[in-house]
Specification:
alpha+beta, 4-stranded mixed beta sheet, 38% helix, globular
């Protein structure tokens, strides 16, 4: 499945589950994860990849950076993994 279609499905699923979802397109930090999600005080960043896809080194750096400041950040390449996150 194309990354864009997978991302759309994830957004719809998360919003149907009560998450407030923002798709990050352009930020002041290149490599930041695609989705910023909030629900009940929980903040989650998700980098969406097509099945089997891997993050680029800068994306891995940003995910590690987010985790170091206490944020929850994931790389997700399928709906089942995403369901476990949300």
């Amino acid at each position: 499945m194309l990354e864009s279609k997978l991302q759309s499905k994830m957004i719809k699923l998360a919003e149907a589950s009560g998450w407030y979802v923002i798709k990050l397109i352009k930020t002041n930090k290149n490599g930041i994860p695609d989705l910023f999600m909030i629900r009940d005080g929980r903040v989650v960043f998700v980098e969406v990849k097509r099945e089997g896809g891997k993050p680029r080194p800068l994306q891995e750096y940003r995910i590690d950076e987010l985790k170091k400041v206490g944020m929850e950040a994931h790389v997700c390449d399928n709906i089942e993994t995403f369901k476990n996150i949300i």
